[in-house]
Write a structure and sequence with these properties.
Largest sheet: 7 strands, parallel
Helix content: 40-55%
Number of helices: 14
CATH superfamily of the largest domain: Glycogen Phosphorylase B
Low-confidence stretches: none
Radius of gyration: 21 Å
CATH architecture of the largest domain: 3-Layer(aba) Sandwich
């Protein structure tokens, strides 16, 4: 199998660039020949010294369609990718929107995205195959492009928990301060659903749940002001801690001292904080829109709550009442950690690529 992974930002900082690099290495580990196509202006010596031993890197000028089995483009709204989309019907081609067709994402800066989608629509109808992280994203793709499109699903892997000693929290839920919940990640109140989390948490407390909540991570826009106001208005100042940015060592301490990570995105690719929690055996409470709910339920690695404060309160109350569920979810998180190794994830992508090639052969 020869595959081009096209992602202009693959040498950049942040979650998705790292994910694409690890996916490429995982595919190579499964015997595929992989070339990652990037914006060459981003090349930094340190990146290349680390990556070129494991994967091939090329610029867009070196992209020669027809010299590979599959071209997989990651990212719909990156203008650097649009010339590649023009040629989608000529080659075995896969497009990953990376969560950007999900309804709540399209509502943010709505006019700009409507204009972009209107301009891109003639190209999108020519895309033969799409990739989705999970069912919620597949549903969003079909809602925008049409029910007729071909979609395969594959998620993202977990990273080794460097310098992690011991296991996740081993204190029982019963006794002490009860259930300890953690949100960790960028404090984007809207995208990450922190507003819904706080309202659901406050409802659970009113219903008698013995629970505390810690919110940690980098501020986003005016999140510090919004979160402080919400905590005050909801009357939960005594049981919610807003700790802001933390070091890696402090992050690991937080993961170790809480029972569940709670992450209720309105849209997302598989969020890195959820995968970091799973890598450490920490159970999670997630929304379907994280595109990880199916994995969590399949492995019994936690609970799923809809983007509704009442359902979030239900999930929190269930976790607080049933201490035995937490012990079960810890074991499920360990199962999910094994399932989401990059080798296993790479095999799912290869299975998807084989479907693309079989479909194209059948149409000739």
């Amino acid at each position: 199998m020869r595959a081009y992974l096209v992602y202009a930002d693959a040498l950049g900082e942040g979650g998705y660039p790292r994910d694409i690099r690890w996916l490429a290495a995982g595919l190579r580990g499964q015997g595929a020949r992989v070339r990652v196509v990037v914006e060459m202006e981003q090349r930094r010596r340190g990146d290349l010294e680390d990556l070129e031993a494991r994967i091939e890197i090329a610029g867009f000028r070196e992209l020669r369609l027809g010299q590979q089995d599959v071209v997989h483009v990651f990212g719909l709204f990156l203008p650097r990718h649009w010339p590649v989309l023009v040629q989608a019907s000529r080659v075995p081609f896969v497009l990953s929107p990376m969560g950007h067709l999900m309804p709540h994402h399209l509502e943010r800066r709505r006019l700009k995205k409507r204009i972009a989608l209107a301009a891109l629509k003639p190209l999108l109808v020519g895309v033969p195959w799409w990739h989705a992280f999970a069912e919620p994203e597949e549903r969003a793709i079909r809602a925008v492009v049409g029910e007729h499109v071909n979609v395969f699903r594959a998620g993202l892997g977990v990273f080794p928990a460097a310098n992690w000693e011991g296991s996740a929290c081993d204190r029982p839920v019963e006794g002490g301060d009860g259930l300890r919940l953690l949100f960790f990640g960028r404090n984007d109140v809207f995208q990450k659903g922190i507003d819904i989390l706080l309202r659901g948490y406050a409802a659970a407390v009113r219903e008698g749940a013995c629970v505390t909540l810690t919110i940690a991570g980098q501020p986003w826009s005016d999140s510090e002001v919004i979160l402080a106001r919400l905590v005050r208005e909801l009357g939960v100042e005594g049981t919610v801690r807003l700790v802001g940015p933390v070091s890696e060592a402090r992050r690991d301490e937080l993961f170790r001292s809480h029972h569940y990570l709670v992450f209720l995105s309105r849209w997302d690719g598989p969020p890195r904080p959820i995968r970091e929690a799973i890598a450490r055996g920490l159970p999670v409470i997630v929304s379907p829109e994280t595109n990880m709910a199916e994995d969590v339920l399949r492995c019994d690695a936690g609970l799923v709550a809809r983007l509704d404060p009442a359902d979030v309160a239900r999930a929190i109350g269930e976790a607080a009442r049933l201490g035995s569920a937490w012990a079960r979810h810890r074991k499920g998180a360990e199962r999910l950690r094994e399932e989401l190794s990059w080798d296993n994830v790479a095999r799912r992508y290869l299975d998807g690529y084989e479907r693309v090639l079989s479909w194209r052969t059948a149409r000739r």
